[in-house]
Structures are given as C-alpha cells and as structure tokens.
Amino acid sequence: MTFEKLTLDWALQKRLNVFLGALLILSLIALLALSVALARAERTVVLVPPEVTTTMEIRRGSADKDTLQAWGQFAAHALGNVTPANIDMTRTTLEPLLDASIYDEVIGRLEAEMDNIFKERRTVSFEPHSVAVDEGNGRVWVTGMSVVTSLVGAEVRHQRTFEVEMRISGYHPRITWIGTYEGAPRTAEIGERG
C-alpha cells in the first residue's frame, strides 16, 4: 500500500464520517420534531356501540352531531323516566356527566323532584319523538310525550322538550346546562335559555 493511496482513503473516511455525523444529527432533529407533533396531534376516537347504527366521533374538545344526539337522548331518557324504584339509579347515572358549574343546582332540583315523586308515589315516563341538534353550540333538543301517572293510575299527558347543552372535555361529555319545558323545542332562541 502506498502512502498516497492511504492518504486518499483516510480523507474519504473523514468526509464520510462528517457526512454520517450530520445525517445522524438531522435524524435526531426530525425524530424530536415528529415526537412533539405526535404529542400535540388531535386524536379522534371512533365509537360504534351495539345499540347505535352509525359511527360516532369524539375529539378532545368536540364531538360530531350523532354523538351529541346520542348523549342528549340519553340525558332526556334518564330525566324523563323516573319512578320511585329508579330514582337513586337516575342520580347515579347523571352525576358523572354533570359539569361542576351546574352540579349543585341540578342535583338539588333532581333531589326535590325525586322527593315529590317518592312522596306522591307517581311515575314519570318520556317517549321521545324528535331530536334537533345545534352542533356549533353543543345543544340538543329532545321532544316527545311526557306521561305522569299517579298511584291510582290517572295519567296526565303533555308534549315536553328536554334541552341539553354539552361540551366535550378530554374526550368526556359534560352536561353544562339542562332545561325542560312543555311544548315544542325553542330552537329559534339559541341565544336564550328556556
């Protein structure tokens, strides 16, 4: 081996090492950038429960129309179908969904209504007929027939609307407002609460 060839091989190795070092640094920077982007990426959770026929999507801070509709119907069903036998179950079901800003008020009203239902031994049932959703505000109107049955079997029927406002926080639905009133939904009054 000649000294001249050794010098050329050594210079080539030095350049190759510099190139590979630069490539390693660029790879580390790209890996770090990808890790940061992945950590900040918005994930979408796709749900298909057995009783739902459509795909529902929940993101960290929002949900699609089908998801809002399903949760609104669930809340209306829980609040609209109360008997002395299921009043504790209704409270247990709704408590984890209530936002902290309305928790005390809603639980207080629910307990007062439960006391009335228990004392008067009446049942309240709700048959939903239509649902309207305002996806932008997270508001759902569930309208149907409410039937109040007394202990002796007398029934009072009237159209009732449950208005439920929700937000999604960390992939969990939170009910931020609940209203109920007789009659058709007040969808035109989006800025006002019933």
What can you see in these coordinates?
- The chain is 41% helix and 29% strand.
- The protein is rod-shaped, with a radius of gyration of 30 Å.
- The strands form 2 sheets. It has a 4-stranded antiparallel sheet, covered by helices on one side. Strands 1-2 form a two-stranded antiparallel sheet.
- It is of the alpha+beta class.
In short:
The protein has 194 residues and is of the alpha+beta class.
Task: Supply database-style keywords.
single chain; 194 residues; 4 helices; alpha+beta; disordered C terminus; rod-shaped; four-stranded antiparallel beta sheet
Set down the secondary structure blueprint.
Elements: H1 3-40, E1 44-47, E2 56-59, H2 65-80, H3 87-94, H4 103-120, E3 123-134, E4 139-149, E5 155-169, E6 172-182
How many strands appear in the DSSP assignment?
6
Task: Work out the helicity level.
Answer: 40-55%
Average pLDDT rating: 84
Global Rg: 30 Å
Q: Report the sheet with the most strands, covering strand number, pairing sense and barrel closure.
A: 4 strands, antiparallel
Q: In angstroms, what separates the terminal alpha carbons?
A: 94 Å
Shape label: rod-shaped
Secondary-structure element order, N to C: HEEHHHEEEE
Low-confidence stretches: 190-194
Structural class: alpha+beta
User: How are the strands of the largest sheet arranged?
Assistant: 3-4-5-6
Question: Assembly state here?
Answer: single chain
**What share of residues are in beta strands?**
25-35%
The number of helices is 4
